[in-house]
Amino acid sequence: MRDTQPELSVVVPMYDEEEVLPIFFERMHPLLDGLGCTYELLVVDDGSRDRTAALLLEAAKDWPQLRVVRLLRNSGHQAAQSAGFRRARGRYVVTIDADLQDPPEVIAEFLATVREQDVDVVYGVRSDRSSDSWPKRTTARLYYRLMCRLVGKQIPFDAADFRLVTRRVVDAVNALPDDGRVFRLVIPWLGFPSTEVRYVRAERAAGTTKYNLSKMVRLAFDSVTAFSAAPLRLATWLGLLGGAMSGLFVIGALVIKLTGRSIPGWTSTVLAVSVIGAIQLFCLGLLGEYVARLFQSSQRRPQFLVGYDSLEDHGHQDPVH
Ligand code: UDP
Ligand code: MG
């Protein structure tokens, strides 16, 4: 087991999950054993401060398929998934949260789907979000709308990080040179053939959310900056708008001055503030344009991945740049 490649790797990022961990294992263990294929359960401990690490090592003693990877410090859900992707050996890799919001029973359905259909990604898509609070649902809807526009692809709405991918996808993700990746965007962006499995998301089985506000904001910023330089260019547009407005101000201020109704000094103050403000914003935007260019070239993402080439058609091909 230790050296052979398992059929399935299940990657679970965990941060301070001591409360849910026993329930998670209780449900996961018989389920994985019953799948009828070799597997590894790869738990990435994202620098937990509670007893998660100790409980993991304890459980691994009599569960050889349980593999524990520890990150030195809390690096975030996405970074923990990256670590899992780099370490996973399976032919198929499933990512799932520890809190049992995503029912592990769906993994069997993922496997059946990928074996039946010629796809590389099976997304778990929530058919119902009623277990989430109203603010969470609204912010999530906004997030997915915006992301569809930025990625320029139809990314599956309400597909979080519960999915199965094949080795081809894992290798392609690992080959991406940029860090700070957001898996739920990068995977659709790669463009491998995919399908969806719908499921009902449950409440967190135990413990509390490990996604605090600052982590959510971080995810939103990472999502935007990984795919778009639009915010950098915002200043250019504000500058142009400010320029147009300052034009109107100048005319207005001169008219007031000429009709002799202005307070001494007012005209020159308004002119200076509006014109200089517009020039400054425009220059900032100009800088933004150059930074945006640098940013895009420094990401060094492959422009495309080839999925099939009739010249090399001996079964399934690995993607090449
Ligand atoms: N998680 C992590 N590192 C973090 C935050 C969260 O590995 O810094 C894990 C967490 O243990 C869980 C998953 O990411 O397995 C999703 O977190 P959570 O369920 O708290 O998020 P929510 O469902 O509330 O959005
Ligand atoms: Mg959760």
List the helices and strands and how they pair.
Blueprint: E1 8-14, H1 21-33, E2 39-45, H2 52-61, E3 66-70, H3 77-87, E4 92-95, H4 106-116, E5 121-128, H5 134-151, E6 163-166, H6 167-174, H7 183-190, E7 194-200, H8 213-227, H9 230-258, H10 266-299
Parallel strand pairs: 1-2, 1-4, 2-3, 5-7
Antiparallel strand pairs: 4-6, 5-6
Helix pairs in contact: 5-8, 9-10
Query: What portion of residues belong to β-strands?
Result: 5-15%
Total beta strands: 7
- Unreliable sequence segments: none
End-to-end CA span: 33 Å
SSE order, one letter for each helix or strand:
EHEHEHEHEHEHHEHHH
The helix-and-strand class reads: alpha/beta
Membrane topology: Multi-pass membrane protein
Organism: Kribbella hippodromi
Protein name: Glycosyltransferase family 2 protein
Domain Glycosyltransferase 2-like: 9-171
Question: Your description of this structure?
Answer:
It is found in: Membrane. It holds the Pfam family Glycos_transf_2. With 321 residues, the chain is of the alpha/beta class. It contains 10 helices and 7 strands. A 7-stranded mixed β-sheet has the order 3-2-1-4-6-5-7, sandwiched between helices. 28% of the residues are buried. The structure holds uridine-5'-diphosphate and magnesium ion. Magnesium ion binds at residues 97, 99, 101, 204.
Give the tags.
321 residues, alpha/beta, 10 helices, 13% strand, binds uridine-5'-diphosphate, binds magnesium ion, Nucleotide-diphossugar_trans, transferase, glycosyltransferase, Glycosyltransferase_2, membrane
